Amino acid sequence: MTEPIKVLIVDDHDMVRRGLRAYLEIEDDIEIVGEASDGDEVLERVEALRPDVILMDLIMERVDGIEATKQVLAQHPECRVIVLTSFYDDEKVFPALEAGATSYLLKTASAEEIVEAIRKAVCGDSVIDAKVAGKMLHRFRDARPKHEQLTSREREVLILIAKGKSNAEIAEELYIGIKTVKTHVSNILSKLGVSDRTQAAIYAHEHHLV
Q: What is the mean pLDDT of residues 153-168?
């Protein structure tokens, strides 16, 4: 028989720990090996109990879940940390994932979702709450250079703007109407977050588009 997954529950609320224990103890392949009420206790518990997975709250006194995650994974990289919290603001989500958390769930998750995340964690797979995943995607998009939002035609127009071409000259070179050029220019300024053609030209040169 396969060894059960050893789980450590970390939360500063006794009722939360009791609820999680009650949910998880009915699963044959999960064993709750211990609890901790503060991030300061986590490393000691991990040393003694050697859990496979830690369910980690983030907001706790003395040492928070993010710092506890860093400390644990620095000494026990084989552990898997699943964040289980009520918070999904940027100041919590990204530092927790950067600290090495495998998964990020909200406390609104069902018992089945938590169990699934635990089983996936030991296989190296992640489970990210949909709200958190949306934030990650938004951040990824924001991290891309603004000119990557431009269509191929808008890039052509931007390059010609950077070369000092007028709307009439751009229209003639690309075989399009003046009105179409003006629409492209307006879209370019909006997507690049600049206010005029000069700033657009400067952007193009700074990003080596010309």
A: 93
